[in-house]
Amino acid sequence: MAKEVVISNGSLNSYGFRVLTEGIDLTQYQRNPILLWMHTRPWRGTTDEVLPLGRVENLHIDGDNLIGTPVFDEGDEFARRVKAKWDAGILKMVSAGLKVIEESSDPSVLLQGQQYATVSRSKLIEVSIVDIGSNDDAIVLYNEHDDIINLAQGKGEIFLTPITNPLTSIQMDVKQIALALGMSETATEQEVLQKAAQLREDASEVVRLRQEAQTRQNEAIVALVDGAISEGKFTADKKDHFVELGKKVGFASLKDTLDLIAPAQKPSNLIHPTNTPATGEYKTLSDVPTDKLEALRKEQPEQYKTLYQKEYGIMPEMND
After folding, report:
1. Backbone phi, then psi, for 70, in 5-degree steps?
2. Lowest mean pLDDT among 68-77, 91-100, 185-194
3. Worst-scoring range by mean pLDDT, 4-8, 101-105, 143-147?
4. CA distance 137 to 7
5. Strand partners, 60
6. What are the start-end ranges of the H helices in 143-289?
C-alpha cells in the first residue's frame, strides 16, 4: 500500500541551515516527479548505474511539511527490491534535492543555533529514497549548474552565507516575549523593551486609579456611618464595626443594611407617648405610626398634606 512521507520542512538541519517550505517551487518537478535512490543519477551511461526508482505522486504542502507518496517502477528489478524494503518499513525516509534560488540572513527567518543563511526560495529538482534517516541525509543542494553538492559534515562545501551573529537563547526569549505581548515575532529588542515599559506605566496607572477609587469609597463609607450615628441608629462606639463591614461588603450593601436599622426612640417618647407629632419629625407619610395618622390628619392638616404629597405625589382630598 502506498505510504505518504514528509519530504522536507522548515526545521533546522544538522548542517546548520533551514529551508522555508513556502519558498519551494514545485512547478518544474511536478512536470517530471522523479524518484531516485540516494540522489544517484545516471551520469556515465553504463549498465551498472542505478536508474530512477519511480515517481512521487500526490505532492502537496500540509502546514510546514512538503509531503508526497513514492510510487515504484515494478518493471525495474532494483526498484522492486527497494520497494520491498520500503513496504517492510526497513527504509522509511526520503530526501529533497533542492536548487537554491535565494537565501536570507534576516533574523525573522533564523532559528537558535543556525550557522548558515536560510534558503528562502528554492526549486525542487528530485526526491530520493535514502538509507539512513537522519538530518544529514534529509536534504541535498544543487548548485547553479545543477551539480549535486556534498554536504557531509566537515567537508566545508556548504555554499550558503555563514551567520556571523547566530541567534542566542536570549534573542529567542525576546521572540517569545514579543509574541506573549501580542507583538510580531520580528519585533526588535528595543521595541519589546518599549512595549514592556508602556505596560508597566499602564499597570502603575491602573493601580493608582484603583487606590484612588478605594480611598473615595472608604471616605463615603465613613460618611455613611457617621450619618447613621447622627440619626441615632446606633452609638458612636459601633462606628469602627460598621466601617469595616462597609469595606468588606461595599458602599451599596452597607447602605442597604443601615437603611434597615430604625433610629432609637427617645425614652420620653416611650414613657409619655403623644398623639401629636412634632413638626418636621416625619419625612414621609410612611414614617407616621398607624395609630397617629388620624390625629395628624385632624390636628395638623397642613403637615399631613405635605407628607401625603411627598409619599404619593399628589395632594390629598380633605373633606372634613
Report:
1. -70, 135
2. 185-194
3. 143-147
4. 11
5. 67
6. 169-180, 189-230, 239-249, 251-259, 267-271
On the CB side of 252, CA atoms within 13 Å amount to 0
Percent helix, percent strand, percent coil in the chain, to nearest 5 = 40, 20, 40
Distance CA 10, CA 29 (A): 19
The backbone region for 257, taken as left when phi is positive above 0, alpha when psi lies in -120 to 50, beta otherwise, is: alpha
Which region, left, alpha or beta, applies to residue 285 given φ > 0 means left and ψ of -120 to 50 means alpha?
A: alpha
Structure-block grid coordinates of residue 36 = 531516485
Which residue type, as a one-letter code, is found at position 178?
A: A
Distance CA 206, CA 203 (A): 5
* Count of other CB atoms within 10 angstroms of residue 164: 6
**pLDDT tens digits, 185-202:** 777 777 877 887 888 888
**Model confidence over 297-311: pLDDT tens digits?**
888 888 888 887 777
Outline where DSSP puts E strands in the chain.
Answer: 5-8, 24-25, 34-37, 54-62, 65-72, 93-104, 118-130, 139-142, 148-149
Count Cβ atoms below 10 Å from residue 62 Cβ, excluding itself: 11
Confidence of residue 153 (pLDDT cuts 50, 70, 90): very low
